Amino acid sequence: MKKFLLLITFNLLLFACSNSDNRDKINNLRSESSDHTNNSNAIPIGVAFAQTSNIALLGQEGIDGVKIAQEYFNSQGGINGKPINLVFQDAGGDEVGAINAFQNLINKDKVVGIVGPTLSQQAFSANPIAERAKVPVIGASNTAKGIPEIGDYIARVSSSVAIVAPHAVQAALKLNPKIKRVAVFYAQNDAFNKSETEIFQNTVKAKGLDLVTVQKFQTTDTDFQTQATNAINLKSDLVIISGLAVDGGNLVKQLRELGYQGLIIGGNGFNTSHIFSVCQALCDGIIIAQAYSPEHPNKINTAFRQAYLQQYKKQPSQVTAQAFTAVQVYVEALQSLNQKRPIEQLNLSELRTALNQELLAKKYDTPLGEIAFTPVGDVIQKQFYVAQLKMDANGLNGRFQYLK
If you classify domain 43-159+296-373 with CATH, what class do you get? Predict the structure, then answer.
C-alpha cells in the first residue's frame, strides 16, 4: 500500500515529462478536455454522476470511487505510460441533467467512454445519446431491467436487481421464519424503484407469503404517515421499501415512530452510509442485499479498500466499489487493446468502437470479485451478500454488518 501511495506522485511527474512524439493523434481524444488536465498525453474518460440535486450524496459515492481508481491505475503506469484523465460533468438528479452531461462529454470533452449516470431513470434517457454516437457507457449504479439492452455500446458493472434483491427476502426469512404478511412500498416516480419493486413483489409471492398492501410514494415526499399507518394496521410482519436514501430513510423513521417493530428490507437505494443521517438510530436492523463486500479477499479489493479507508476513515460502499470497477474495466480494456495496436494510431471514432468491443470480451478481477459481460453488456458476477445496518449507541453512525 505504501508503494502504491508513493508511486502516485512519482508516476504523475513521469507522465508530465514523457515523450510526446505521438501526441497529435492523442490530442484528437482530448480536444477541449485540456481544461481538465495539464498532460496532453492523457486519455480522457467521462464521468456523469450527480454533483447536485437530491441524489448528490449517492453521486458523490461514485465520484469517490472513480477518483481512487484514477490515482491507483495511474500509479501503476496507466495505459503503457499514458495516464487516464477523468472528465467530470454534473448529471444532476433528472433526465435533462444526464442528457446534458452526456452531450458535453461526447461532443465537447471528446471522451473515449463514459461512466454513469447515477440513476437508471437517467440512463434510459441519456444512454441512447451515447449509443447513437457510438460511445461506450458503463453504468456503475444502474440496476433496472433493460439497461444493457438499450444498445450495443451500453454495459454495466452493477448487477441487475432481479439477481440481487431476492437475497434480501431470503435473509429476512432466515432471521424470522414466522414472517407471513408483507407490506411493500415503492417510489413510483423512479424507473429503478418501479423495476425493483416488481422483483420484490414477485419474490414475496414465490415464497408463499401474503402481500397485504402495496403503497406508493414519490422520491420528493417527506410525509409518509398515511402509507405507514396503513401497513401497520394490516399487521405486516415485513416491510420492503424501494426508494432512495432520503425518502426511504424518512419512511423507515416514520414507520418506527408509529410503532412498527418488524423487519425492514431496503432496496438498492439504501446502499449508502448517507442513510445513517436520515433515520439515525431508527436505521438499526434494516436488511439490504449487496453486490460488494469490503471483506472480499482479492488483491485489487485490498488496495482499493485501504486507499479508501486512508482517505475517508470508513469502509467503501457498494456504489463506490462499482464506480472503481467501471474505471478498472476501461483501463484494462485499453491496456489490452494497446497491446494489439497502439491506440495513438486510432482516431477517436475508431478507438471508441475498438474499446467497446474489447471491454465486452474480457474477464476482470475487481473489488466485486471476478466479473465478465454477456454479449449485450450485462455484468456476470459470482458473489452476492446481505448486510444488516447496525447503528452506534449515539445513533449518528453505523456500519453494514454482513450476514452469513
Answer: alpha beta
